[in-house]
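Board work, copied verbatim: TETRASPANIN-8-RELATED
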Amino acid sequence: MFFLIILLFCFTIFAFVVTNKGAGQVLSGKGYKEYKLGDYSNWLQKRVGNGKNWGKIKSCLIDAKVCSDFNQKFMNDTVEVLYTRHLSALQAGCCKPSDSCGFIYKSPINWEKTPTNSTSDPDCNAWDNQTDVLCFNCNSCKAGLLDNLKRDWKKVAVINIVFLVFLIIVYSVGCCAFRNNRRDNNAYSAGWKHP
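↓ predict structure ↓
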């Protein structure tokens, strides 16, 4: 039980350290945030930066119809209305191009690239209107996923702390009971031998 407590303690510390960095950037006049991969911990960046890992994750995001549902939900919105929506990290990162790209809005997942766009954001070149491409290859999509992971890991870490406190209390009570039982047995044994 002692090793379980140590292991749980180490995992909880690790979860807090890894998820400590990173947050979406609030955009003026927008109901959503933009997410940058470089804002998150290096450990998390390496996990999504690995092409094999990201390929599996991207496939899951496409199969989960994250952007298809996004498109259906906001199909009738004008660009002004879409900008006021509170989008999830995945919707903002994977289903629409970054605002810095300056693309022209056609529909929630259909944006026209502008020939005069001179942004240095590599996500602008990665964007494609095909439903199985969109911005799934963008760093903003990876950052949106990391934001979701960060939020989930924080919840797990809090639950671990509660469980850890419970385990420490049970372990302490058990140790005290064992010590008292041992002392009582020693006293009883000593009393039995020497009447």
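The radius of gyration is 26 Å.
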